[in-house]
Amino acid sequence: MSPASATQGRKILLVAHPRRQEAQDVATEVVARLHAAGIEVVVQRDEAAAVKLAQHPGVTVVDNGNSAAEGCELVCVLGGDGTILRGAEVSRGSGAPLLGVNLGHVGFLAEAEREDIDATVEHIVAKTYSVEERMTLEVSAHVNGDPVYTSWALNEVTVEKANRERMLEVVAEIDGRPLTTWGCDGVVVATPTGSTAYAFSAGGPVVWPDVEALLLVPISAHALFARPLVLGPNSHLALEVVPDTLGTGALWCDGRRAVDLPPGARIEVVRSDTPVRLARLSTSPFTDRLVAKFDLSIHGWRGEARREDAARAGQLPPA
Q1: What is the pTM of this model?
Q2: In sequence order, what are the residues at sequence separation of 6 or more whose Cβ sits closer than 8 angstroms to the Cβ of residue 105?
Q3: Alpha carbons 53 and 221: distance in angstroms, whole number
Q4: Which residues contact 272 (CB under 8 A, 6 or more apart)?
Q5: Is 90 exceeded by the pLDDT of residue 305?
Q6: Do 14 and 41 form a contact (C-beta atoms < 8 A)?
Q7: Which DSSP category does 194 fall into?
Q8: DSSP string, 136-158
Q9: What is the per-residue burial (b if ≥16 Cβ within 10 Å, else e) of 121-148?
Q10: SS3 assignment, position 288
Q11: SS3 label, residue 84
Q12: What would the pLDDT profile of 104-153 be if each residue is shown by its tens digit?
């Protein structure tokens, strides 16, 4: 089969940070290489104008919206975690996996770094990547029993105080039973994927992505019992803003979508039936990702894998 026939009819959705010059430069490079391989690159209209790709050969401009990824085999994202979360909004439910190239700082959701862009494009062209699914959350908010908001999240759902000078009083409920009332700055409900994001900053545990669980993490709670909790994946969580609290709140999903919460509002969070699919180029374990992203010191490690690596390098005989 010729290279042209192997790539015939293939489409990739490209999502890039609209205000970062590096993202524009990398996007132009990626489009040129994919076009040369016979792969059509789809870009949403507003983004195509922002990164100057609207007139580029091989680019198809589509309307903005969650249907942009339909018919695409992959969603390639160029940017930091915020841009990757935006790409997740487009890719979720389409069947197209998400492949992130980190142009930001930590980039925990990214699979590749800027210096890996050549190899990344080669993987896309050759389809040499695996796909894993990450659980997501469904969230709904009610006021006086009436639904006022529904959304979803890949990383976390947070209920936060809206006024700096006022604490937020929140009752936590698990599987229909009250747990405790926190006077706090907020509460994070996170997935394992989100355990290295806001929940981590709030003092929550790091949870391996293949663990199915929900995290409940209070933020700066004025309470004796204010430990982060790890719950079963089928738990039903609810957070109620105490009716006579002096503060008002806000509900955030992945730090991107928000709605105001008056006193008495009830927020319900459950596991979603629709995961986000992530493309993986490497089989390295999550431990290695943690070490790399957080620049953890492993000085002094003498594990078996280190001995095997050293033996292959001829530095010492195998045990």
Answers
A1: 0.89
A2: 80
A3: 47
A4: 135, 136, 137, 138, 152
A5: no
A6: yes
A7: G
A8: -EEEEEEETTEEEEEEEESSEEE
A9: bebbbeeebeeeebbbbbbbbbbeeeeb
A10: helix
A11: helix
A12: 777 889 999 999 999 999 999 999 999 999 999 999 999 999 999 999 99
Write the CA distances from 109 to 57, 198, 199, integer angstroms.
Answer: 30, 13, 15
Question: 178: Cβ–Cβ under 8 A, 6 or more apart, which residues?
Answer: 171, 172
Catalytic one among 81, 118, 175, 288? 81
Are 226 and 203 in contact, with CB atoms under 8 Å apart? no
d(CA 102, CA 76): 11
Looking at beta carbons, which pairs linking 47-51 to residues 24 or more positions away fall under 8 Å? 47/15, 47/16, 47/18, 50/18, 50/19, 51/16, 51/18, 51/23, 51/24, 51/27
User: What does the pLDDT look like over 263-296, one tens digit per residue?
Assistant: 999 999 999 999 999 999 988 899 999 998 899 9
Q: C-alpha angle 248/251/252, rounded to 5°?
A: 140
d(CA 180, CA 226): 9
Torsions phi, psi for 49 (to 5 deg): -70, -40
Contact 242, 169 (CB under 8 A): yes
Return the structure tokens found at 167.
Answer: 């604490």
pLDDT band at 3 (very low <50, low <70, confident <90, very high): very low
Joined together, the tokens standing for residue 308 give 């095997």
Beta bridge partners of 279: 131
pLDDT of residue 239 exceeding 50: yes
CA atoms within 13 A on the CB side of 310: 12
Query: 81 an active-site residue?
Result: yes
The Cα–Cα gap between 55 and 48 comes to 9
* pLDDT digit string, tens, across residues 189-234: 999 999 999 999 999 999 999 999 999 999 999 988 999 999 999 9
